[in-house]
Amino acid sequence: MSERTLLEVSGVSVSFDGFKAINNLSFQIGKAELRAIIGPNGAGKTTFMDIVTGKTKPDEGRVLWGDKSVSLLSMRESDIAQAGVGRKFQRPTVFEDQSVEDNLAMALKNDRKPWEVLFYKRTARDTDRIRALAEEIGLTDQLGRTSGELSHGQKQWLEIGMLLAQDPQLLLVDEPAAGMGPEERDHTTEILKEAAKTRAVVVVEHDMDFVRKLNCKVTVLHEGSVLAEGSLDHVTSNQEVIDVYLGR
Ligand code: ADP
User: Fold this and answer.
1) Residue ranges of the ABC transporter domain (predicted)?
2) Which of 113, 12, 86 is CA-nearest to residue 56?
């Protein structure tokens, strides 16, 4: 594994009731890289994220992580999260009745319970970190607001901020711009690009306009394998990719 590689998936296969959802999948993600994973429905995108986060264990193959090339496959879900893999599901899951600030404070220590944060005396370091995170996600002027009052887009950014609070080395994000208007989508792009300067960010996405905005390397999955990889222009000019997307 090269020293710039964070995650190496090699020869991974997973079957569900005899059906190969992931079929000899191999590819790598760099340490400070923004990557989009695209592919038609059923291509294996969710199963890939489930494997990396430890939710699904493959039947074959290797998933190696970090400088020491440790196997993620021998680790439990909680240990993988601890090792630095963060995952953002499509729907935001913030504590709606807590302020933006308290949500970020809770996320700084992910073992802290919602009620504990109310009685917890924050250190100056925590406060600085919360401010920096709020700035990173563009919610500085919303810190005191109850999270339930935020727009859909703001909730998504808050959740990204909560994941960043745990300082993951790899952030997996599932369709972050779904349901957002153009300005919110642009802001989401900026947040993800910024986050990918210091960590790997993998975005699973359907929306090609959004992928174009991300302006990053794209991996196309089809039937559980990599069909094409490269810039968006490169992969979308590939005849096999065109055929798959047009359902031929
Ligand atoms: P994508 O996220 O690209 O739409 P998925 O990873 O969800 O694709 O699914 C890949 C294939 O595996 C699909 O055909 C899906 O029906 C199948 N699959 C996924 N999870 C399961 C499961 N738990 N049991 C049976 N089949 C599954």
Assistant:
1) 7-248
2) 12
